[in-house]
Amino acid sequence: MKKLLLSVALGALLTACAPDAPQTEGAPPAKAAEAPARSASDEIHFRALVLDTHLDTPAYFHTPDYNFSQRGDFDVDGTHVDLPRMNEGGLDGGFWVIFTPQGPLDEASYLAARNMAILRQMSIRELAAKYHEDVELAFSTADAERIAAAGKKIVFQSMENAYPLGTDISMLDTFYIGGLRMIAPVHFRNSQFADSATDVSPAYGGLSPLGEALVRRANELGLILDGSHASDDTVRDMLELSTTPIILSHSGPKAVYDHPRNVPDDLLIAIAEDGGVIQINAYGSYLEALLASPERLAALAELEAQYGRDTSTMDDATRDAYRAAFQELNKAFPPPRSTFEKFMEHLLYTLELVGPDHVGVGADWDGGGGVDGMKDIVDLPKVTARLVEAGYSEEDIVKIWGGNVLRLMSEVEAARTSDLASPQVLN
User: Fold this and answer.
1) Residue 248 CA: distances (Å) to CA of 53, 67, 184
2) Which fold would CATH assign to domain 40-290+337-414?
3) pLDDT tens, 147-175?
4) I need a labelling partner for 261 at 20 to 30 A (CA). Which of 35, 164, 184, 346 fits?
């Protein structure tokens, strides 16, 4: 695939100059202040098309204190992504997530989750309409190239957990028409489609029959299939059944840290050999064992006693109260955090294992990601600097930051067989 680069203006920097001041005889002429020069790795970073495959930021879109156009601060409001920080950190966009937590497998719960997912998709489209001068919905790789060339941020849509589809696979068509281009069958617990990596015990031994139908329809529509959160057997079933390569949108290597959410070497290699891509997450508890303080554990126990653990069964008012209480708890008793070095250990290990044609970054921003030394997207150039230090070329880095996922997406698009009309951009 042709290497993708953002067009970055590297001409002369404009500086504000004061009127000429009287010169002392023999003194050299006054010089205008110069902007600090970028490092070589920063030049590479800001030339590359930088995409993240798992942005949970839409969870904030309908909250009263979040404004996409204003710079937030993780230490103050807990957020990672907004337009000013995208510009500072060189993040050109990615996949913005339609997420619903896993709930009971019954029709009433499916309907409630469906409503929630439709509203989340609408909020993503509203963002693109409201900030149309700065961002734009993307439905294809060609859209992404055009949007980046126009200097705008790219808004693809993904669905984390197919639970809101219920048992009606045709609902996938509805979300596709709205712009969905990636789907993961499962989240933290088993769904009607597949076994989760983190549920107590498997329900199907991989994909369910309904999950197999989901994979087939996703292939027909040209949707990328995402194996993050899925059990190893589910990922193997996806690899065997799918006619196109798959992605792990925010995962990590089990060899670095043995967590159920992480993936063993043989499966990472199989995904890469099939043409897929592994995007490394920055969610601390998946990077290493982190021990919470006794005070935090006690506060969490009190919160659970008051609200329970399953947010999917809460009404809107209770869920809002729970989230507010959880935010206050985090301020009073911050969770333990992993480090940038540990994140890079996961990234560099996976690169060494499967090569730079099959690895990228899906840090789980605004969904629990972020580590000490890389607390939000402003710190993304640090990743590029470390990749340069490790010996990766600019061509490699361009692939890692966005080229690999767009190459995968172009393959999925080319294999599309459905005659369902693809939507046009609506601003």
Assistant:
1) 9, 29, 9
2) TIM Barrel (3.20.20)
3) 999 999 999 999 999 999 999 999 999 99
4) 164
Q: What is the reported pLDDT for 419?
A: 87
Selection from 240, 303, 300 nearest residue 276 by Cα: 240
Measure CA of the first residue to CA of the last residue in the chain; give whole Å.
29
Residues in the chain: 427
CA distance 258 to 387: 24
CA 285 to centroid of chain Cα atoms: 17
Return the bridge partners of 248, or none: 278
- Nearest residue to 150 (alpha-carbon basis) of 142, 139, 160, 158: 142
Look up the pTM and report it.
Answer: 0.87
DSSP state of 399: I
Q: Count CB atoms within 10 A of the CB of residue 284.
A: 22
Distance CA 183, CA 107 (A): 21
Measured CA to CA, the distance from residue 265 to residue 350 in angstroms comes to 9
Of 177, 193, 265, residue with least CA distance to 225: 193
Residue carrying structure tokens 């329900």: 203
Angle formed by the axes of helices 380-389 and 40-47, nearest 10°: 120
Q: How far is CA 400 from CA 174, 326, 404, in A?
A: 31, 35, 6
| Tokens 């919905």 sit on residue | 137
- The string of pLDDT tens digits covering residues 376-425 is 999 999 999 999 999 999 999 999 999 999 999 999 999 999 988 765 54
Domain ranges of the chain: 40-290+337-414, 291-336
Q: Is 205 within 8 Å of 233 (Cβ atoms)?
A: yes
pLDDT digits (tens, 9 = 90+) for 330-365: 889 988 999 999 999 999 999 999 999 999 999 999
| 207-208-209 Cα angle (round to 5) | 120
Strand order in the sheet with 359-361: 247-251, 277-280, 359-361
Integer angstrom CA distances of residue 312 from 105, 110, 184, 344: 12, 11, 18, 34
